[in-house]
Amino acid sequence: MAKKRIVMALGHNALGTSLPEQKTAVAGTAKVIAGFIQNGWQVSVTHGNAPQVGMIHTAMNEFSRRHAGYTAAPMSVCSAMSQGYIGYDLQNGIRSELVQRGIYKPVSTILTQVTVNPYDDSFYTPVKKIGRFMDREEALEEEAKGNYVAEIPGKGWQRAVAAPRPVSIVEADAIRALLDAGQAVICCGGGGIPVLEQGPRLKGASAIIEKDLVAGLLAREVDADVLMILTSVDNVTLDYGTPQEKPIHHMTTAEAETYICQGHFEFASMLPKVDAAISFIKAGEGRRAIITSLEKAQDSIEGRAGTLIR
Predict the structure, then answer these.
(1) Which residues of 93-112 are buried (b: 16+ CB within 10 A; e: fewer)?
(2) pLDDT tens per residue, range 46-101
(3) What mean pLDDT comes out for the span 284-294?
């Protein structure tokens, strides 16, 4: 029987926002992923990391402020740390669920770097907010270091970093090799560790890559059959949040592009998910993308739920 390959992109609701929440959430998430593996899918999992990387960034910065001789951790390092501890919980959760089902399949986490263009426009207009809220004095200190800050009305200021588009996945060959060997792979966590190519070196960038765009790139790189983006809603909708809200169950890439032009999808929410789906489908034959909730993942792969894009 031909192999079926899927990239599953987990949203923050699949992981929780704190260490205890993550342990609880991963147990349920692992059941869903194990179900796909049990049904014969080759599975690659990517995930968000916004609460986790923010926590790590805040902790490392606060530690360096209070202890002489220690320095704050760059965003690329914080991203790597988040990949490690989220991957640790996910791979153990999935492995445990598989063993309970009598399936003995390796599950691996790949520390993944993703190259970005140093001239990406986003570096001039940082939009991703991270870390704790600061007062005005702290914000001025942050700006003096050459960092961007953004005022959040009524709350204070936050560090703001760029969100460049992903160019290539550095460890793509390793990910493909593991999938070809029948392993489940967790990779590209949090959009990957953003890096800039400088000759033979890779240098970490002060940025956060949109995880959904990386999921689409990963699905293209591993020649997946399905890209499944799991989020907090069951379907993509038109006129979201209005009395005219209408769920979409099926749409073509052409229809999706029309809806984008009409402004139906929010910039930091549904738009990158639909964008990733379009790019993935257009890059090969016979592909499909699904956007739905974790709870509807199995129903959606069988055509009973979610939004299917072809």
Answers:
(1) bbbebbeeeeeeeebbbbbb
(2) 999 888 887 887 788 778 778 877 777 888 898 999 999 999 999 999 999 999 99
(3) 94
Rounded Cα distance between 37 and 100, Å, is 13
Residues 6+ apart with CB under 8 A from 70: 63, 64
Q: Give the C-alpha separation, 168 to 177, whole Å.
A: 17
Q: For residue 46, give Cα distances in angstroms to 159, 235, 270.
A: 25, 20, 17
Q: Cβ contacts of residue 47 below 8 Å, gap of 6+?
A: 9, 10, 14, 15, 86, 90, 186, 189, 190, 211
pLDDT tens-digit readout, 190-203: 999 999 999 999 99
Which two tokens mark 278?
A: 């379009």
Cα 292 to Cα 10, 159, 267: the distances in Å are 10, 31, 18
Closest C-alpha to 284, from 222, 230, 236: 222
